[in-house]
Write a structure and sequence with these properties.
single chain; two-stranded parallel sheet; 354 residues; TIM Barrel; 11% strand
């Protein structure tokens, strides 16, 4: 079944982890044996080959670079200009993958429909489609840079990531959107960019809901009902997004799927983390909505973690093809499953784009 993955940090893996995603997952793992600089070395799950094997022909692919102010202990760049330059290096990688025939950027409805038709006809040779998103807006130096980003293909943006940001407060922080945040939201509306609500802390989330009137989704978010942490959305937040016709992509980072996960100590095997936990989150959002129209897949695979912090029944991203059977077991019919695996995000884009 065709799969739309609403969140993959492809360029981060290429530029910061130095992974050549044209290699197979096995080849990347072999090249990283013995490396200890990152906890997920030799445990990666994503490559172009694995995406194609899993029929993941369209994804939202990110740029990401945090600007950290003095005394902020999170990793990042010491100026917005440096963060901007990092995102542009990531964009250059995407463009080079286009030139080499591996990827194709999708920026409007015509390109979307053409790509889906081409993939259906010949998915063996059609480049994987990607929609460019910016995770955390710290690299947007001012609104002129937002327009530059749009001209270069940016179509979705999340104002915050982890910690305090220039335009909003993110995961594990507390604060509102302020004047700059409101200006950014107006700029997003003007350009008809998609606002990604993922990572907004509760205060910034609700302040955003009061002033923002444009298209919105949550590319990779799970439910606070199952893991009581500010990174997840409460039922109240999920219902607000549903009311705004948003789609929420469920994520595969194990600590967001089961409670009491201890980073560096817990393992998927010990905690019993499986793809059924993703289905649990999917089902909860469907029950809140009363239908299957507001949830999808946003795996975040290899988003700073690998097999050490992913479902134990997933070896590569191609194993997403096991989700439809789990949804069938849960009582979902073929239309519901198509909605969840691809159609909800595709219909969202068709409705949003001209």
């Amino acid at each position: 079944m065709f799969i739309f993955d609403a969140h993959l940090d492809l360029s981060m893996n290429a530029m910061e982890w130095n992974r050549d995603l044209r290699w197979s997952v096995a080849e990347i793992r072999e090249s990283e044996e013995g490396m200890t600089d990152k906890p997920d070395r030799a445990k990666n799950t994503v490559s172009f080959d694995a995406m194609r094997k899993g029929d993941i022909g369209l994804c939202v692919a990110t740029q990401i670079a945090r600007y950290v102010k003095p005394k902020n202990t999170l990793p990042g760049w010491n100026s917005p200009q440096q963060a901007w330059a990092q995102t542009q290096g990531q964009l250059s990688w995407y463009k080079s993958m286009e030139d080499d025939g591996w990827l194709r950027q999708i920026t409007n409805k015509r390109e979307l429909n053409a790509h889906l038709e081409n993939w259906q006809k010949n998915k063996k040779t059609t480049p994987i489609g990607y929609i460019l998103s910016l995770e955390g807006a710290d690299s947007i130096i001012n609104l002129d840079y937002l327009e530059k980003s749009y001209e270069r293909g940016l179509r979705a943006i999340g104002p915050a990531h982890y910690g305090p940001g220039t335009y909003a407060f993110g995961t594990d922080s507390i604060g509102g959107i302020g004047v700059k945040g409101k200006e950014l939201l107006k700029g997003i509306e003007k350009l008809n960019l998609i606002l990604d609500a993922t990572h907004l802390c509760d205060q910034s989330f609700w302040e955003t809901m009061k002033v923002y009137e444009g298209p919105i989704w949550a590319s990779h978010n799970n439910c606070r009902k199952f893991v009581n942490h500010n990174r997840q959305f409460s039922d109240e937040q999920l219902l607000e997004l549903i009311d705004r016709k948003a789609v929420i992509g469920t994520v595969l980072d194990a600590w967001m799927m089961v409670p009491n996960w201890q980073r560096g100590k817990s393992t998927p095997e010990k905690m019993g983390v499986t793809l059924e936990h993703m289905v649990q989150n999917i089902d909860h959002i469907c029950q809140l909505a009363g239908n299957s129209l507001h949830v999808g897949i946003g795996t975040d695979l290899d988003g700073g973690f690998g097999k050490e912090q992913a479902p134990m029944d997933l070896d590569t991203i191609a194993d997403l093809q096991n989700i439809p059977a789990l949804l069938t077991k849960k009582g979902y019919d073929s239309d519901d499953i198509s909605n969840i695996m691809n159609r909800n995000f595709i219909n969202f884009l068709r409705h949003t784009w001209t």
